[in-house]
Amino acid sequence: MKITKIAFAIMLCISMISCASDDDASGEDLTGQTGELILKFDNGVGDQDFIFGTTYSKSNNESYKLDNLKYIISNVQLTDDPGNVFTYPTADNVFIVDEANGNNAGEIYVVLENVTAADYVSVSFGVGIDQDRFALGADGQGDFLEYAQDQGMFWSWASGYKFIRFDGTFSSDTMTDEPLNLHMGSVGTSLDNYRAVNLTLPNTVRVREASQPEIHIVADISQAFDGETSVNFMDGYDQVHTDANETPIIANNVMGMFEVHHIHNN
Amino acid sequence: MKKVTLLVLSLCVFSCSKTDEINGYQATPLEVVIPENFPQIQYNLDNNPVTQEGFELGKLLFYEGKLSSNDAISCAFCHEQAFAFTHHGHTLSHGVNGGVGFRNAQPIQNMAYQMEFMWDGAASHLDFQPIIPITSELEMGEILSNVINKLKNDAGYQYQFGRAFENGEINSENMLKALSQFMNMMVSSNSKYDKYVRGEDNVQLSNIELDGLANFETNCASCHATDLFTDHTYRNNGLSVNPMLDDKGRYNLFENPDDLYKFRVPSLRNIEVTYPYMHDGRFSTLEAVLEFYNSGGTDNGNVDPSLLRENGTYGITLSNYEKESIIAFLNTLTDHEFLQDDRFSEF
């Protein structure tokens, strides 16, 4: 553990050395400065805000309403204009975005602390847990395992995380209010459904000690069903768990859900 | 920049030494046995080095009823040392509130040498394996955060976690790491057969045991491979499907039709004491197992091709002497030192 900590400290130092742009365009010295950055996740359906219990229509004359909507975000990285990459500390770099934790506007805050001060132009993150993190076993997970289990994001019959969790009901031409459960994840090392998302920011986000900027990310959850590949509940996509054919399609669709809507530099 | 480096490093060093003093953290290294006749170790010990203190904590947890919802069902309830940590005589595992599981408890031995766990491979990391029985409603019926809360309220565990882990925290990471440390030490590699192949203590096999070894290599070793006696694959060996359980095996994981009725090829170490046999414990003797292969299984549509015989049936043709000698050989895989090792005993 000591070795891990020292290695981490060294890594942190290296990343600081490489990230911190000592002088920005205005000649401002950012050396050693860190600040807070908020990733604000805002779930929607097309051009509507997402609301629990509201019916949304999709392709093929099907519709759905959800009472549970969560996903795991991990490996957040930020890149500044010269191309320096800031990686949030690995052990803390995993979050559950739960619609139920949203404010009145349905926005879920992921607060990143001690972010190296810089002007960042892009943000990237993964949906789910990557194979490197999974291969560590319990190492570095702290209390995330029990947290994920309490959040219903860990399977108990197979040891793996649910990356996304959409629960509710669907209706079609022939069915009404049938159960809908999308629990997509990786299964051990055999099925890797982790996907990385890279988003370019519309303008730079300025991370400073004295400010609290926000990146407002809109997630269009309809893309999960009608994204890169349109899928139909009636074809078996009403119950998605570990199927080796269905889950990669959902994973690719989910990768396309995210878009940076705007930046708040305050 | 240099200042920051120094600051970060000194903070880290400071926090470490402070924790040591408060919690009595000690790290007395323990060596995981790597027998020369075993394949490569799979567990990454660098991420979770075994220490005396972590091992002792893992042992306490292994025998701890608080890991279950009624505070009574410990891991050891279904994993008894005298039977190579299996559930003696029970076809299926029993759990809280009279629940009965779907499968036969597997032995706990040589876990560090396996990459996947459970009959269907549902756990692909040893650290995560205990979560499955802990949370199964039919077994321990508990959730991790409840277990952690119970341990946090126990002064004994506050002390033990403080000794075993640098940050001293009682959380799922440290609990699972301690259990893995305990299990990683559980190496069974001192059977009569092991001593024979390693040329130790002048141990010799008898004639019938040697015949059995030869017959085993001809008939069984393609699946029960290496000195772990498993090739780590999942196969359908043609067992008739029990309609009461309708256990589809590895198919339940990925819903892949190729996986129908496939179960892990089990290790055969200590097989003499791990009866009953097969994923549902349907055979109570090794004689019954070998006679099943000899008389042939059920063609359920997905039986392993290696079992296909010239007459179109699935099985392994064995004469009475072949069966008898194979069993004599299998009995040389019993590791009495392991079965009686005080390090793993509750008392």
Description:
The complex is a heterodimer of chains A (266) and B (347). Helix content of chain A is 17%, strand content 41%. Chain A has 266 residues and is an alpha+beta fold. Chain A has one domain (34-264). In chain A, strands 3, 4, 5, 6, 8, 9, 10, 11 and 13 form a nine-stranded mixed beta sheet that branches. In chain A, strands 1, 2, 7, 12 and 14 form a five-stranded mixed beta sheet that branches. The model of chain A is unreliable at 13-24 (pLDDT under 50). Chain B is mainly alpha-helical. Chain B folds into two domains: 24-188, Cytochrome c-like domain (Cytochrome Bc1 Complex, Chain D, domain 2, Orthogonal Bundle), CATH 1.10.760.10; 192-337, Cytochrome Bc1 Complex, Chain D, domain 2, CATH 1.10.760.10. Chain B contains 13 helices and two strands. In chain B, strands 1-2 form a two-stranded antiparallel sheet. In chain B, helix 2 (52-62) runs antiparallel to helix 6, helix 2 (52-62) crosses helix 7 and helix 9 packs across helix 12 (320-330). The chains are: A alpha+beta (266), B mainly alpha (347).
Task: Describe the secondary-structure layout.
The complex is a heterodimer of chains A (266) and B (347).
Chain A: H1 2-19, E1 34-45, E2 48-49, E3 56-57, E4 63-80, E5 85-87, E6 94-98, E7 107-116, E8 118-127, H2 131-135, H3 144-150, E9 162-171, E10 178-185, E11 195-207, E12 214-220, H4 223-226, E13 239-240, H5 246-255, E14 258-264
Chain B: H1 2-23, H2 52-62, H3 75-78, H4 131-135, H5 144-152, H6 155-164, H7 172-184, H8 192-197, H9 207-219, E1 234-235, H10 251-254, E2 263-264, H11 286-295, H12 320-330, H13 336-339
Helix pairs in contact in B: 2-6, 2-7, 9-12
